[in-house]
């Protein structure tokens, strides 16, 4: 498909599963505000990248229909990295050097994000990641921000819940991906601070389809609860195997599986599993006075009406990333990259799908533990624990 006009759509697709979408460009009098994205739309992390791309497309269109930003249209330039870090680096370089984007909202996974971080830092372009690991923002990087809760926060939220249930000994099981390794490391760091002793620490490979050997070891470890640090297909296999080996200890998952897809893949074995997640998954269960309720219900209704499919917290991360950039551009009064960066860092009381964001020079995420809700699978759906 060729470029029909600056207000049209440009699509470039190739053997590398490249997607480039230029949505609703600027009016003739002014250049558009270019928002770049590299996302894992296909491949093993497509459950992240697909709703993220759909969300960015939807809200760029909605913002443009409402008049754009600072009187200028937004233009989305998005590429599919298929979860490959090297492709992500290549596309990030293209966004920065060829597409001349004003900001980047993307990086579905920790691996693809970290491949692009040095490029964004060197180019001096605001970059809001949609991935989970704490390494993205710690140590703080001048131009890099993120929207999802960190893996460390997930560990802490889970351990607080375990302790409230009388658990003092827990087992870890984790995958081999970047997020999995990071969360495992963070859980090992903070467990003792929350009064939890890790009595087993098992791992599995990305291609593994049976985790019963690891879970059998955990069953003999004396653990009173099990935490799976991971995302993708692995956690669903762990959930099914947890039941198959006869483990009755509570099973916890990470926010990396915070979507109905996890419940579908896990089947009845998911019943009773707990995980920390954003309020978006339980929008209707929130109190009327909850500040997030109008935001999460509004996003859910818009997304599900447009795409006829259920929302996930991952699309919510993209919504927050885009809206944070738009809010910063408005407060900066321009697309001057340094001013937008400063405005992002100065974000206060932004109410998003992930929580209430208060950033600072030492915190480029801006969320605390209160942004996490503890959920439990009940009758094949999410229930709010606290």
Helix content: 25-40%
Give the strand content.
15-25%
- In CATH terms, the superfamily of the largest domain is Response regulator
Distance between the termini: 49 Å
**Total number of domains:** 2
Strand order of the largest sheet: 4-3-5-6-7
Biggest sheet character: 5 strands, parallel
Q: Are there runs of 5+ residues with pLDDT below 50, and where?
A: 1-18, 24-28
**Overall pLDDT confidence:** 92
Instruction: Note the overall shape.
Output: globular
DSSP summary: helix tally: 11
CATH topology of the largest domain: Rossmann fold
Order of helices and strands: EEEHEHEHEEHEHEHEHEHEHHHEEEE
Instruction: Name the CATH architecture of the largest domain.
Output: 3-Layer(aba) Sandwich
Main CATH class of the largest domain: Alpha Beta
Can you walk me through this structure?
The longest helix is centred in the first third of the chain and has 20 residues, at 46-65. The protein is of the alpha/beta class. 37% of the residues lie in helices and 18% in strands. It starts with 8 loop residues before the first strand and ends with a strand. Helix 7 (234-244) crosses helix 8 (260-266) and helix 10 crosses helix 11 (337-345). The chain has two domains: 9-149 and 295-371, Rossmann fold; 151-277, Response regulator (Rossmann fold, 3-Layer(aba) Sandwich), CATH 3.40.50.2300. The chain has helices at 46-65, 85-97, 110-123, 151-164, 178-190, 212-219, 234-244, 260-266, 293-307, 313-332, 337-345; strands at residues 9-11, 21-23, 33-39, 74-80, 103-106, 127-129, 144-146, 169-174, 197-203, 225-229, 251-253, 274-277, 350-351, 356-357, 373-378, 381-384.
């Amino acid at each position: 498909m060729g470029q029909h006009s600056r207000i049209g759509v440009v699509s470039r697709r190739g053997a590398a599963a490249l997607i480039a979408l230029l949505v609703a460009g600027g009016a003739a009098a002014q250049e558009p505000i270019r928002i770049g994205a590299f996302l894992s739309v296909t491949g093993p992390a497509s459950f992240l990248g697909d709703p993220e791309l759909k969300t960015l497309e939807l809200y760029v269109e909605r913002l443009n229909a409402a008049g754009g930003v600072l009187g200028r249209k937004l233009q989305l330039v998005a590429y599919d990295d298929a979860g490959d870090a090297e492709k992500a680096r290549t596309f990030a370089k293209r966004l920065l050097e060829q597409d001349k984007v004003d900001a980047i909202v993307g990086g579905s996974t920790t691996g693809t994000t970290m491949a692009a971080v040095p490029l964004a830092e060197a180019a001096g372009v605001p970059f809001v990641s949609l991935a989970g690991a704490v390494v993205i923002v710690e140590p703080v990087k001048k131009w890099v921000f993120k929207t999802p809760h960190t893996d460390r926060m997930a560990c802490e939220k889970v351990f607080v819940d375990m302790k409230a249930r009388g658990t003092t000994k827990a087992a870890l099981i984790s995958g081999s991906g970047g997020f999995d390794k990071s969360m495992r490391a963070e859980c090992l760091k903070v467990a003792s601070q929350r009064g939890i002793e890790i009595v087993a620490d098992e791992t599995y490979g990305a291609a593994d389809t049976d985790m019963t050997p690891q879970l059998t070891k955990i069953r003999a470890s004396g653990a009173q609860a099990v935490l799976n640090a991971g995302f993708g297909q692995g956690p669903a296999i762990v959930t099914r195997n947890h039941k198959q080996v006869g483990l009755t200890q509570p099973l916890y998952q990470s926010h990396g599986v915070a979507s109905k897809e996890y419940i579908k893949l896990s089947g009845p074995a998911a019943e009773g599993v707990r995980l920390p997640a954003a309020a978006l998954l339980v929008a209707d269960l929130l109190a009327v006075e909850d500040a997030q309720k109008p935001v999460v219900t509004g996003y859910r209704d818009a997304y599900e009406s447009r795409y006829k499919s259920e929302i996930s917290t991952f699309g919510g991360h993209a919504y927050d990333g885009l809206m944070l950039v738009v809010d910063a551009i408005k407060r900066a009064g321009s697309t001057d990259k340094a001013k937008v960066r400063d405005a992002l860092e100065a974000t206060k009381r932004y109410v998003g799908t992930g929580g209430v964001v208060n950033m600072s020079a030492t915190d480029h995420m801006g969320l605390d533990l209160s942004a996490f809700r503890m959920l439990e699978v009940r009758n094949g759906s999410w229930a709010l624990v606290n």
